[in-house]
Amino acid sequence: MRNLFFFLLLSFSVCNAQHVSIKRDSISSTKDTIFLSVKNNMLSPMFLKIIPIDSTSRSIVYTKNTVLQPSEKLIGFMKVPRNILETDTSKINLSNYFSFKAGYGDPSTVKHNNTYQYLLPYKKRRKLIQGNFGKFSHDHIASNHAFDFGTQIGDTLYAAREGKVVMLKEDSKKHGRTRKYINDGNYIIIQHDDGTTASYYHLDFKGALVEKGDLVQRGQVIGISGMTGFTTVPHVHFVVHKATVDNGNVSVPIQFEGYIGKKFKKGKRYARKK
């Protein structure tokens, strides 16, 4: 009998964790059960919550809430009886049975510093094409407090706050106006000292000018703006997240230096004050 083992990679969409894929590894299972393991491929802690959505899930033994440290792998976090799976056990769609919520960071320790004044992630005067609670794509708890600034392809991007680069993607050339392109966006994710993370989205192909593990300073050059992922125009999508037990990654309201107390308006142009 061929021995099978599967593990789940926490490298799904930064925006949500509804679509989860399984890849095969080389550790054996039993005759009746397939053991799934989960691995955090980021350089920051990650929180994963599993919510059953189908009665079949009652037959599956799983860990409901998990906090994984950087590069940590948890073996056997889910035990799946073979008799409930498709004939081809190399293809397991857990989204048929569970909903997944994920957050970058540890919900027990993260606490956003609400007094911090972020830099705009660019220098030139640029138009806000979608602000907080925008109906096009900022209608989700993970993006409610996001900002889309209409940068040009090739614009330099800067760190809005100091921190550590915990994940990045720069190998995509794809973009489109539907959510099927949501995982095709290039990005940089930087973790701050309060446990929150900032995401800089829609970078150009090979547009990251930093590496995973780099410590970056506020105002440091980190990337090149582009047009990748779920987008109709070139822009940088900037959002700060914190991990929560109930909702996984949620965006948090922030304030920009030089604009304290001012609400950014769609269609208006804004430049960095310093």
TrEMBL record:
For this protein, the record's InterPro entries field holds: Cell_wall_metabolism_enzyme, Dup_hybrid_motif, M23ase_b-sheet_dom
Q: Which Pfam families match?
A: Peptidase_M23
Q: Which residues form the signal peptide?
A: 1-17
Name the keywords, alphabetized: Signal
| Domain M23ase beta-sheet core per the UniProt entry, residue ranges | 145-243
> Do you know which SUPFAM superfamilies this protein is assigned to?
Duplicated hybrid motif (SSF51261)
Q: Which Gene3D superfamilies does the annotation name?
A: Glucose Permease (Domain IIA)
| Stored PANTHER family | MUREIN HYDROLASE ACTIVATOR ENVC (PTHR21666:SF270), PEPTIDASE-RELATED (PTHR21666)
Provide the protein name.
Answer: M23 family metallopeptidase
Taxonomic classification, please?
Bacteria, Pseudomonadati, Bacteroidota, Flavobacteriia, Flavobacteriales
